[in-house]
Amino acid sequence: MPTLQEMAKKKAAFSSGHRLCAGCPVPIFTKMLTQVTDFDLVLGSATGCLEVASSIFPYSAWNVPWIHTAFENVAATMSGVEAMYRVLKKEGRTDKRLKFVAMGGDGGTYDIGIQSLSAAMERGHDLLYICYDNGAYMNTGIQRSGATPLGAATTTTPVGEVTAGKQQQRKDLTKIMVAHHMRYVAQASIHNPIDLSNKIKKGIELDGPAFLNVLCPCIPGWRIAPDMAVESARCGVETCFWPLYEVEDGKYKVNYRPKQKIPITDWLFSQGRFTHLKNPRFAGLLEGFQRQVDEEWTWLLDQEKAAT
Q1: Structural domain containing residue 226
Q2: Phi and psi of 279, rounded to 5°?
Q3: Torsion angles phi and psi, residue 120, rounded to 5
Q4: Which CA distances in Å does 161 have to 168, 229, 284, 285, 289?
Q5: Closest to 98 in 3D by CA, of 1, 9, 205
Q6: pTM for this one?
Q7: Chunked in runs of 10, what are the mean pLDDT values of the chain (308 residues)?
Q8: How many domains does the chain fold into?
Q9: Do 119 and 85 meet the contact criterion of CB atoms below 8 Å apart?
Q10: Which string of b and e fits 60-74 if b means at least 16 CB within 10 Å?
Q11: How far apart are CA 159 and CA 157, in angstroms?
């Protein structure tokens, strides 16, 4: 694994001059893609923040071959590209060392794109799928998605006299991907560059399908200051709302244990989308939220223990 100093000297997959919001953390992982591996990459992006902000005609922020697809089919598109490459290699028509990466936000991954994602992973394509999870359909107006946490205020789950934002628990897509019996599935966060770069490298360089879910706070959607995205991601990990772990060949490994797990309210109340939960009438929701986080963390530690 190259050091951070060595990585910084390599040309990044993603350039400056993109149109992502000030403070958006998504470029943290996109720049790493070519810096962690010596393979040549072909990338694909589902419609979403990253695609819209990186490819406003006639400009592009990509320094590598890149394909824009619809919301629902980036995994299918990149599956086809990967299959074509295997045919060309078999026929001796190329000697390039290529790897393939598909990317989508949680809307295009948890919901609209889950069918093509599931199919690509089940078929076993040599493909890394990266989901940048910001917890809503941020690009189209901050509507709730399957990744939106319980109680979050969005434009389609507003706060009213009766309801406190979203009424459902978020979907656990990482566990869904583990159920596909893939060689590598992991969760990461943009605040931890070493852990993140290690996981991107593993996902790119192994032979077969891999999935990486990355916590990427959204400045306008989470209603946080432009300089708070990294700190918000860190807090989400310290509460164990977003544990850092990986599953290799079915075996769980926790990559980070907080020295002192902090209450979920520390993370929730730092974001404008949850400020309404400070109202005492929503105390039960907060208690349930904390209980779920605690139970999921205990379950994860049990899985790791069982694997040793």
Answers
A1: 4-307
A2: -65, 130
A3: -65, -40
A4: 17, 30, 16, 15, 20
A5: 205
A6: 0.96
A7: 75 92 96 95 97 92 96 97 98 97 97 98 98 97 98 96 90 98 97 97 97 98 98 98 98 97 98 96 95 98 94
A8: 1
A9: no
A10: ebbeeebbbbebbbb
A11: 7
How many other C-beta atoms are found inside a 10 Å radius of the C-beta of residue 281?
Answer: 10
pLDDT on residue 255: 98
Give the separation between CA 135 and CA 143, rounded to whole angstroms: 9
Q: Tokens for 147?
A: 């990744």
pLDDT of residue 1: 66
The tokens for 108 are: 């295009």
Looking at residue 160, its pLDDT comes to 87
CATH code where residue 228 lies: 3.40.50.970
- Calpha distance 107→109 (Å, rounded): 5
Kindly report the backbone phi and psi dihedral angles of residue 249, in degrees, each rounded to the nearest multiple of 5, phi listed first.
50, 40
C-alpha radius of gyration, the chain, whole number? 19
Both tokens assigned to 203:
């996902």
Backbone angles phi, psi at 213, to 5 degrees: -105, 120
Long-range residue pairs from 284-292, CB within 8 A, at least 24 positions apart, any chain:
285/150, 285/151, 285/164, 286/151, 288/150, 289/149, 289/150, 289/151, 289/264, 290/263, 290/264, 290/265, 292/150, 292/169
d(CA 223, CA 270): 9
- Name every residue whose Cβ is closer than 8 Å to that of residue 93 and which is 6 or more positions away in sequence: none
Contacts of residue 121, defined as CB under 8 A and 6 or more positions apart, other chains included, come to: 75, 129, 177, 180, 182, 209, 211
> At which residue do the structure tokens 């070493």 appear?
194
The CB density around residue 11, as the number of other CB atoms within 10 Å, is 10
- What span, in angstroms and rounded, lies between the C-alpha atoms of 99 and 80? 13
- DSSP SS3 for 105: strand
Q: What is the pLDDT of residue 161?
A: 82
